[in-house]
From TrEMBL, chain A:
GO BP term, pick one: transmembrane transport
SUPFAM superfamilies attached to this UniProt entry: MetI-like
UniProt keyword terms in alphabetical order: Cell inner membrane, Cell membrane, Membrane, Transmembrane, Transmembrane helix, Transport
GO CC annotation: plasma membrane
CDD domains: TM_PBP2 (cd06261)
Places the protein is found: Cell inner membrane; Cell membrane
Residues passing through the membrane, by range: 22-49, 69-93, 105-130, 150-170, 209-231, 251-269, 304-325, 345-370, 382-403, 409-426, 462-483, 512-535
Gene that encodes the chain: thiP
Membrane-related topology note: Multi-pass membrane protein
Family: Belongs to the binding-protein-dependent transport system permease family.
Protein name: ABC-type Fe3+ transport system, permease component
The species this protein was found in: Halapricum desulfuricans
Length: 544, 408
């Protein structure tokens, strides 16, 4: 804890009975109700689980298949998270702290895979590397008949890593950009080698950033249904989906509860890492960036790494989509509804609303967690992550039931769909907002207050402009993940309301893959724009 | 309505439209006969009593031109020399009028919509909104909606009888009129008329004729795991609804133990999993697989696109392997559009619509007078198992078996 933080803490302690207590109470109430609201779909799960007799519960719990699926899920989550760190952190260092050529271009390229829906990625990978894929077709004349199978754990890990590592990349890069260069210089003057300085000074400061990104990767992996389904790898989401649609909601709910348990374990693990590095989640006062690492003759070689990742994650899926476009399916010509631009507009509308609602809901959670005292203050923020880890089909059926029973007048409107997105993706907005609040010097607010500004005005005039970039980045993240959400969209969209993903689902169901190309490219294109918003915020950071 | 027939025919013939006759007839009728129409809302206002009066022969005459059979027929080598479809013609049916909301289950949603679009074009006062989703998800959703009395759609069209049975069990349906289900054989109608089949889908074994002889394939599906030529050569799609219905049928016919044994034996015989049954049929036709488990029409699709592929269908005899399941329709129990929904389903069972299902989706028609495409055996020639399709809704124990066998 730095000296100023201590002073800050002491001064806060002295002001116990000040009007700010009322503020804190209001804030806590707001944050608490947001947390309760986003947890409502889980009430449905608990309610359905209630009907299961305890012996049946134990019997299902203790089955060999339950254990296998748990093991598969854990292995998948650990592998994807570890691999994402191994890709995301070096990419962040390369683009933020070295003299590698075309750093800005590679920053954009490294972040973009996040906009590709992982089920489209998985599909592209099967088309490219599956038993009858493009690669097999190319290799067959060369006498190579068998290529290693893309299905199973391997394929799931590769695909999920390629399309989720940008979370780690983005959060690590943000941390890197906010590191006070003077501490690194100090270490260097104390005879540390560059590597030792990185390990002992930079890395500890990066840890919370890496952990925040890894958390998003781990929870996304836990909740993803499409990739393991296409890769034929058995995890919780698949069993939950199968059981839910077989109307065995009780069994699905048991697995959902296990999944929530796993989520809580992951959240606790991440909290420990973050608390361990709490001193580094500090107020960024320094404007000195650490010196750039000169790569010397490795300068150009270094570009091969981001290039290879971009080729797999960014070039391959559109290339496969374009071959579909060229592929005619005469036996099914005219089988599916033609693509309409209205679908794209619908996608943008609901995702945009979800982004707007999410950032508003995120503010109290993030503020309380960043500025509140004690572990209780972080509880609403932590709780909001649970929805992110729950598969869309559970959120979908949960909200379906809640809407039918509690707010029937909203059932079948886009309000329910937007709320589903908020439940699933709110933590992304909370995360970016919280980290930008942490970077605002609380003394600025105090200063404004001493100058006679009422609390809300001080917040609006001082804090809000400073945290705006974080809010905008959060909105963009929620927007682009909502754009690609499939399960809840399919279930909760109003009658006659089609979006890009529901259209892609329909033509893919009808095996008219060629017709999926245009909407998929439109989806990726629109989401890419919002990714530019996220990176644009960075440029602002750098310039300040 | 009847009183304005003459006027409208005169009016109609003076205005040239791209879609002739019935549309023109009704459009003109709508203008000329507003007063008359007000008196017979049972016909045009979407009344609930299902009484649509006697067939409107004059309108039907006009419709003849509009609904040339080519509107409904598919194309391709497979359809050459087809006889004209027999059965109740669409032109003998009451008009469709009003707005219908349809829950549309599963994969062939796009194809079915082509048919609905034709109906929309023929009847200017008729329009529909469809919400496509996987059938099993829709059944679960309908169950939830029915519990709170907030059904959103008038008709549920499912790709399998299992999901239809499920919504009937939940009390979410009301019966179709006897007149609507009358031409369909009893096996494809729920005993209380709560759902009716609109297109049949037979389980089959697509096999590669370069790699296998039909004599390599057992007549009993239960013998397949032991058949030497089929070791490490087959594929199935265990997450696919139609496959699960097939396992349910096996469970009902052979018992749980035998089914579990069969599932385990198939895995021991090195069966490979696929995402859906079109992929299986395609893989068989390219030689990636020698044979597989799939609905019959996927092979027909592959063949209509690539007629030279060495692909044929084998049907087992009198067991789960030759189950004929149906795509079917149920009326959802809500106050709106009751009559319209029933007459809509009646249209789906007309000779023209059945010709559409037969030639566009390669399904088994529900009317005896309409032939299946190509050299498919007729339903009578298939030795289908004796099974109540409604029982296919009991999927719970099946999922348990599939999980226990490690297939799901």
């Amino acid at each position: 804890m730095s000296v100023s933080d201590r002073i800050d803490a002491v001064s806060r302690r002295f002001k116990r009975r000040s009007p700010s207590d009322v503020q804190t109470l209001v804030l806590a109430l707001l944050a608490g109700s947001v947390a309760v609201a986003v947890l409502t779909p889980l009430l449905w799960v608990l309610n359905s689980a209630r009907s299961v007799p305890i012996d049946r519960f134990l019997e299902i719990l203790l089955r060999q298949t339950t254990f296998d699926i748990l093991l598969n899920t854990v292995v998948l989550v650990v592998a994807v998270t570890a691999l994402s760190i191994l890709i995301g952190v070096p990419l962040a260092v390369l683009t933020a702290q070295t003299d590698m050529p075309f750093r800005r271009l590679f920053t954009v390229l490294a972040a973009l895979p996040l906009v590709v829906p992982s089920y489209i990625g998985a599909f592209a990978f099967v088309s490219a590397f599956g038993p009858r894929g493009e690669l097999a077709t190319v290799l067959a004349p060369l006498g190579i008949e068998q290529i290693p199978s893309i299905y199973g754990l391997g394929g799931s890990v590769i695909v999920l890593t390629l399309f989720t590592y940008p979370y780690v990349f983005l959060t690590t890069r943000a941390s890197l950009l906010s590191i006070d260069g003077r501490s690194v210089e100090a270490a260097r003057t104390l005879n540390h080698t560059r590597l030792a300085a990185f390990r002992r000074v930079t890395l500890p400061q990066l840890k919370p950033g890496i952990a925040a990104g890894a958390l998003l990767v781990a929870l996304y992996t836990l909740s993803d249904f499409g990739t393991p389904a296409i890769m034929q790898f058995d995890v919780f989401t698949r069993i939950i989906y199968v059981r839910t649609t077989a109307r065995q909601v009780d069994i699905a709910s048991i697995f959902s509860i296990l999944l929530v348990g796993l989520t809580v374990v992951i959240l606790l693990a991440e909290s420990r890492i973050e608390r361990g590095g709490e001193t580094s989640a500090y107020v960024n006062r320094g404007t000195d960036r650490p010196g750039v690492v000169r790569l010397g003759r490795w300068r150009w070689m270094a570009t091969l790494f981001p290039l290879a990742i971009a080729a797999l994650a960014l070039a391959l899926p559109p290339a496969i989509l374009l071959t579909w476009l060229g592929r005619s399916t005469p036996e099914l010509a005219g089988a599916a509804v033609d693509f309409q631009w209205e679908f794209a507009w619908n996608s943008v509308l609901v995702s945009g609303l979800a982004a707007g609602v999410s950032v508003l809901a995120a503010l109290p959670l993030a503020y309380l967690s960043a500025r509140g005292e004690g572990r209780l203050a972080s509880l609403p923020e932590r709780a909001s992550y649970v929805g992110y880890a729950v598969p869309g089909v559970i959120v979908g059926f949960g909200l379906l039931s809640v809407a039918l029973n509690v707010t029937p007048f909203l059932y079948g409107s886009i309000a329910v769909l937007v709320f589903a997105y908020v439940v699933r993706f709110l933590p992304q907005a909370v995360g970016t907002t919280r980290s930008s609040i942490l970077q605002v010097d609380p003394q600025l607010l105090e200063a404004a207050r001493t100058l006679g500004k009422p609390p809300l005005a001080a917040f609006r005039k001082i804090v809000l402009p400073l945290v705006m970039p974080g809010i905008v980045a959060g909105a963009a993240l929620v927007f682009l993940t909502s754009m690609k959400e499939l399960a809840a969209t399919l279930l909760l969209r109003p009658f006659g309301f089609e979006t890009l993903v529901t259209y892609i689902w329909q033509v893919q169901e009808a095996a008219v893959y060629g017709q999926a190309a245009v909407p998929a490219l439109v989806l990726i294109g629109i989401s890419a724009l919002s990714m530019l918003v996220i990176l644009g915020r960075e440029r602002y950071d750098v310039k300040e | 309505m009847m009183t304005t027939d003459d006027d409208t025919r005169d009016d109609g013939s003076t205005s040239e439209r791209h879609r002739p006759s019935r549309r023109r007839f009704l459009a003109a009728g709508g203008v000329a006969a507003t007063g008359a129409l007000a008196g017979c809302t049972g016909l045009f206002g979407g009344g609930d009593d299902g009484d649509y009066g006697p067939p409107d022969y004059d309108a039907a005459d006009a419709a003849m031109e509009a609904m040339a059979i080519s509107e409904f027929q598919g194309s391709g080598a497979i359809l050459e020399g087809r006889p004209a479809p027999g059965g109740r013609s669409m032109e003998d049916l009451p008009n469709l009028s009003g707005e219908l909301a349809i829950y549309l289950g599963g994969g062939e949603g796009g194809l079915y919509r082509d048919l609905f679009d034709v109906l929309e074009a023929v009847y200017p006062d008729f329009s529909y909104t469809a919400q496509p989703k996987p059938s099993s998800e829709l059944a679960a959703q309908i169950a939830e909606e029915a519990q709170t009395g907030q059904l959103q759609a008038d008709v549920f069209i499912s790709i399998g009888a299992g999901s239809l049975g499920a919504v009937v069990e939940e009390g979410a349906t009301r019966p179709l009129t006897a007149e609507t289900v009358e031409p369909v054989p009893g096996a494809f109608v729920e005993p209380d008329n709560n759902w009716v089949g609109i297109a049949g889908r037979a389980r089959a074994i697509p096999y590669n004729t370069d790699q296998l002889d039909e004599s390599d394939l057992p007549d009993s599906v239960m013998d397949i795991p032991d058949a030497d030529p089929l070791q490490n050569a087959m594929g199935w799609a265990p997450t696919y609804g139609a496959f699960q219905d097939f396992v349910t049928a096996m469970r009902l016919l052979e018992g749980e133990d035998a089914t579990l044994q069969w599932l385990e034996d198939m895995q021991a015989a090195g069966i490979q999993s696929y995402d859906n049954e079109f992929l299986i049929s395609d893989a068989v036709s390219t030689g990636e697989l020698d044979a597989g488990f799939a609905n019959h029409y996927y092979a027909m699709r592959v063949l209509n696109g690539s007629p030279d592929r060495p692909l044929d269908l084998h049907f087992t005899r009198g067991d789960a392997g030759s189950l004929v399941n149906v795509s079917g329709a149920a009326l959802l129990d809500r106050d709106e559009n009751a009559g319209l929904a029933d007459v809509f389903v009646r249209h789906l069972l007309s000779a023209e619509a059945q010709e559409f299902f037969a030639t566009r989706t390669y399904a088994y028609p529900m009317l005896p007078g309409v032939q299946p495409v190509g050299d498919l055996p007729t339903i009578d020639e298939l030795e289908t198992p004796d099974i109540d399709l409604t029982e296919l809704s009991n999927t719970g124990p099946t999922t348990d078996l599939l999980t226990e066998a490690g297939v799901l």
